[in-house]
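Dear support,

I submitted the protein below through the web form. The confirmation email said the job was done, but the results page showed an empty box. After a refresh the structure appeared. I'm attaching both so you can tell me whether what I see now is the final result or a partial one.
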Amino acid sequence: MTVNKLKKMLKKTPPLSVFMIICLTAMAVGEFFAILRIAKENNLVSLVLLAILQCFTLYVAFRIIKGAIKVKKNGKKTLAYLKSNGLMEAAVAEYNHPGKALFHVADRDHAFDKFARRDNTLTENFIFALSSNQIIRYQDLYSAYLVCYMFSDEGSYSNEVFTLLTKEGEEIDLLSYQCRSSVTPPREIIEWICSVIKSKNPDCKVSSASMEIVRWR
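What the results page shows now:
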């Protein structure tokens, strides 16, 4: 990693989001022309179904666009943060240090608003949340906690996410894993992350207990 590569990385938009936006836009255009054609045929049932489908397509596209814009803003904000504090070279040097632990995080509700192939890591002075295009310092944290996003009332499938809350009120997802019988929760890693954060920022409220949030039914 070099300074130029880091700058280039933080300026990127998630490629999967771009691909999905293009596909959904094409679908919406096709659905629009299909609606115009069916409207002339006075086929009310087909017209209603197509209208519902287009609303759903536009809704999904809106969510992806919103997520992509947020990630883009995160990168711009991080670049300004590092430059204004003279931390760019220090961040690159720490990221290049060998032996760092890497954490993978999936989107909370499986939307396409993160860099799926990027990993997050902790260094001596920084938290690299590169999946969401962010780099912060430990002193920027207000709290850290686990959240369990459940996709059914029975809890048969869920996504547990270790989340950071900054002093500005922004949530950053650092590590996640699917809660299934065949998956062993990485409790040792989570406890280690908690201990590192607490040692770097004693004022940060750190908890490894999870909160349950039902997302989909």
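Response: this is the final, complete result; the empty box was a page-load delay. DSSP finds five helices and eight strands in the chain.
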